[in-house]
Amino acid sequence: MIIALYGSGEFTDSVNEIDRYLIEKYKLKTVAVIPTAAGKERDYYKWIDMAQLHYANFKLNVVPVPVINAQDANDAELVKLLDQADWIFFSGGSPKYLLDTLKGSKLWDKVIQRLNEGALLAGSSAGAMIMGNYLLESPFKAVFSSLPANWDKAFKLVDFTVFPHFNKLKRYNKLISKVIKKAPLEVRNSWIGIEENTALIIDSDGSRIKGVGTVDIQSQEVSLIE
């Protein structure tokens, strides 16, 4: 199993080091780009446009997979596109919308199939959050809203909860403490914070950090290697 969790920055020059590393290490040829997390936005297709421009610099083929709702996520023709790729990438947007759209879908079944067949699975921001144990739509709302925090069980491909854009959250240390303190026990015991333009890469050899930032870890399941 090969998974890459980006804190942000997908399809920009800011993550060139990360992408170059992945392409060279895993001999990647084709990336399937799935903008589902931005499915409620009018310009969701910008993620595919950005990916095509970005990966042209690496001579990588891009397969657009424009799944933007639950109906698309069960469309056999769209799902079949993943068979063409050795890299599957979920871009950013709304983690809650992404999770709800993919749950129980044929697309997610195909993602797991391709992952087990050796394809690399990557997600940035919302795309990374769905791979953990739980996700929280907005840490800021969780603290400052009068409503209780709504933690959703995610897909548990990695045994921790993922907080992207963590350099921004670290500016508000009390915010992080409050979010974690109110979280389910499983979150409190095992979470990671990934800074922007940074990725945590996990494979059978272990875990490593690439990019310009760092990863904060509260987890016995993550042991970093050089």
Q: What is the number of E strands?
A: 12
The backbone outline, from C-alpha atoms, is globular
Q: How many domains, as an integer?
A: 1
CATH architect. name: 3-Layer(aba) Sandwich
- From N to C, what is the helix and strand string? EHEHEHEHHEHEHEEHHHEEEE
The share of residues in extended strands comes to: 15-25%
Radius of gyration: 16 Å
End-to-end Cα distance: 19 Å
- The side-by-side strand order for the widest beta sheet comes to 3-2-4-5-1-10-11
Q: Specify the number of helices.
A: 10
Short overview:
By secondary structure, this protein is α/β, with parallel strands linked by helices. Helices cover 33% and strands 23% of the residues. Strand 2 (30-34), helix 2 (46-56) and strand 3 (61-64) form a beta-alpha-beta unit.
